[in-house]
Amino acid sequence: MAFCESPQMNHRSTPKPASILGATLVSLLSAAEPAQAQADPADPPVAPPATEAPSAPEPAAEPPPPAPAPQAPAPVEPAPTPPEEGPPPEAATEPAAEARASAGASLEIDPPRPVAAPPPAEASAKAAPPEATAATAPLTLSVGEGERALSVTFYGFVQADYIYDTTRSFDEWIGPHLVERTDTYDGTVGRTQFSTRNTRFGLFFTAPSIGGVRPTAVLEGDFFGNQPASAHEGSFYDSPTFRLRHAFVSVKTDYIDVVLGQTYDVFGWQNTFFPASAELLPLPAQVFSRRPQFRLSRSFGADGPVGVTIAAAAARPAQRDAEIPDVNGGLLFTLNDWKGITTPGNIGTRATPLSLGISGVVRQFKVDAFTPPPTQTSNEALGWGLSVDALLPVIPADDASDRGNRLTLLGSVVTGTGVGDLMNTLGGASFPTLPNPAQATPPPEYHGNIDPGLLSFDTQGVLHSIDWQGFRVGAQYYLPPSGRFIIAANYTQAHSRNLDELFPQGGAEIELLVRVADRTRYADVSLFWDAMPFLRFGLGGSYTWVEYLDGDDPHNLRAKAQAVYLF
């Protein structure tokens, strides 16, 4: 609201309300300069072992605060939070844990924690890092005081994607989907898409530590929710459905950390080893999964040269009728003094130590027998997966602000059976048609009580889990002098060892040969530019190739441009 004064009021010495409000806002905004090389909270670093979503924010490297404006309220100094385990979390404003300016449900915007300027000798020895990196200081609001204080940090981004494909195979996301065959019309004509569905919002809640217990919570979503099959194309892109990404509580103690709710799996140590790409994650044949889970973990040596994290989790089963949750477990080793600059996805650039992760998953299946209804018995099968992941800083960095002329390599090798959903490579596999020796009309239909692509029956009606092997390699180079330009490249490949045996040439399910693929390859190149501290532009090109069981091997070329505004 603007305050208007008559000329008769100008002689008063009391500051105007508008001046007080303006001076207060100027003071707060001046203190909230963009953090340097802050990781984006949307896909934050794994704080092994507790969370893949935003870690408790740490103080950003800020310039000295400006002199307070007349009669502006002095900022409340935030209390320090305990250090996070694992890779350094993003630089951000720190939620206040001290008493508020007034008791009760007072609401205020927490200023960032000021850091003293370096002495002249140090400042001259090391030049200040470049200012334009895709990062902003999130908005944090606090309410209450003492043990009842609660802080919430708002974060997210607005993303606009512009995509052209040479086939009509994909929506915005490629993922596990197959390229349309060369003998179909959709496999010979292109498609153009404009989309903002990857726009994302998140809330990060913190509360005071009580008795050594440090609780936090994350709620995050985007607009890739399921839409009815009858939805028109205009509604699909212009009125997308909101989707839950992360919803979990993290409880940290000095002895063990607990995560309850939906977030990234331990399998693959997500998101420590995520690739940088203008393409939406996951890439084809990339380990990527978010599920409700109960996780226990413990880190050792987080403040030393070598760190070790142990984690185990019970996750939502791939099949609820199996009665047993999926079991995840893993070890993560880090060399904490050897850091590399990395970007998981297209935002969230950060410094991560040299890391080696070994993780696995075991799951149980109990599928209805391959017989006409009603179901009388079930067939059981065991699924498992093993993932070895590495992050190697070839040209290491001192910290997240040391971005110019930095090179980081990432790699992943995965093998397993019945884990195509976790590897994002399903091959289009499905259940065969029930035999109909009596020539019944209509013919009997088999409705499996499990998502397709994980298991199938052979020609004798015996249940098999589908085997997959895959690998991924990637490189990220941050151009000198500032690292504002990023070049990233990735290659992935996956192959099924038994799909051709489940659907043999000349078998009864001859029509499945043209719908099932047992090989996939993918490659991409991306260029990012941090135009401003809150604005990143990206260009990308990708190549996707699959081979169907009958030998058809179509490919798709994609060109993509995007803009991301962080908040």
Task: Please explain how this structure is put together.
The chain contains five helices and 21 strands. The protein has helices at 17-31, 120-125, 233-238, 420-423, 499-502; strands at 107-109, 139-143, 150-165, 191-195, 200-206, 214-222, 243-252, 257-264, 290-300, 306-315, 326-342, 350-368, 378-395, 406-417, 455-457, 463-465, 467-478, 485-495, 517-532, 535-548, 555-566. A 16-stranded antiparallel barrel has the order 3-5-6-7-8-9-10-11-12-13-14-17-18-19-20-21. A two-stranded antiparallel ribbon has the order 15-16. Strand 19 and strand 20 (535-548) form a beta hairpin. The protein starts with 16 loop residues before the first helix and ends with a strand.
Keywords for this entry:
single chain; 567 residues; mainly beta
Task: Compose a concise summary of this entry.
The protein is mostly beta strands.
For the largest sheet, list the strands in their spatial order: 3-5-6-7-8-9-10-11-12-13-14-17-18-19-20-21
What's the main sheet like? Answer: 16 strands, antiparallel, barrel
Q: In angstroms, what separates the terminal alpha carbons? A: 24 Å
- Number of E-state strands: 21
| Gyration radius from CA atoms, angstroms | 27 Å
**Beta-strand share of residues:** 35-45%
